[in-house]
Write a structure and sequence with these properties.
The protein is mainly alpha-helical. The chain has one domain. The protein contains 13 helices and four strands. It has a two-stranded antiparallel ribbon with strand order 1-3. The chain has a two-stranded antiparallel ribbon with strand order 2-4. The N and C termini lie far apart (54 Å). The relative contact order is 0.12. Keywords: Signal.
């Protein structure tokens, strides 16, 4: 209950901040609301999902912790741990990160990805799993994306965390199926930025999106064929220049 009360107070505070920051805020259209919901959807891996969901349910009502007890955690297989991490974040922090839908967000390519878990983030234990089992994560996400043709926001964030640059062809192929998930284009740009790909770092797109870290969370490119094709072309060239495993 303490956490719920704190969250409600935070929402009220943030709403005031947003109102003061942007007095011209507009009521989002149905298309914008629908796209925002689409952006925030996570992918729920099938590996031991029922078992993992029951374990998470046991800790949901705990006001003091959102962390699975070590004994239960160690009882999970490698794949079940992957499912646990992808659908549950253990670390709670009271941040004013959530933003109302940006008008016409369906027509924008944003600099940053949405948060998959609201005020929660992956804990040190979870990040250690990512580092220790990077190849497993790439394999399981590749398998899952190939099956569902969808890259949930949790997968996108995980790909950033493990620097999954070898997944670029899969990401592009998934995007090209319907050209709907513009956050895949965002992910491609983040991968190029994080890997310091010079042609991107010296581009007008980088300057507009990432040159100012304080405003980057609100920055975007207009979605059009030219920007779409340029991002994909740059990401493809970046990928083709990566050292390949022998």
């Amino acid at each position: 209950m303490k956490r719920i009360a704190a969250a409600l107070m935070l929402v009220a505070t943030c709403n005031v901040c947003w109102a003061q920051e942007d007095e011209k805020w507009q009521e989002p259209s149905k298309a914008t609301v629908a796209y925002q919901e689409y952006r925030e959807k996570i992918t729920r891996p099938p590996y031991g999902l029922e078992k993992v969901s029951l374990l998470i349910k046991k800790i949901k009502d705990d006001d003091e912790s959102s962390t699975l007890p070590q004994k239960d955690y160690l009882s999970l297989s490698l794949r079940e741990k992957f499912t646990y991490h992808m659908i549950h974040a253990e670390s709670y922090s009271q941040n004013c990160d959530a933003m109302p839908p940006v008008p016409e967000s369906e027509k924008k390519i944003f600099a940053q990805l949405p948060d998959p878990f609201g005020e929660y983030s992956w804990s040190e234990r979870q990040m250690n799993y990512f580092k220790a089992h990077r190849d497993t994560m790439v394999a399981l996400m590749t398998e899952s994306i190939g099956r569902s043709n969808r890259v949930g926001v949790n997968y996108k964030k995980a790909i950033v965390e493990i620097n999954g640059k070898e997944m670029i062809p899969l990401l592009i192929n998934t995007y090209n199926r319907d050209h709907k998930d513009k956050d895949i284009l965002t992910l491609l740009m983040i991968l190029m930025k994080n890997n310091e790909y010079t042609p991107f770092l010296t581009s007008a797109s980088y300057k507009k999106l990432f040159s100012d870290a304080e405003t980057s969370y609100r920055a975007f490119l207009n979605f059009n064929t030219a920007n779409e094709e340029l991002i994909i072309q740059r990401a493809t060239t970046f990928y083709n220049g990566l050292p390949k495993k022998g």
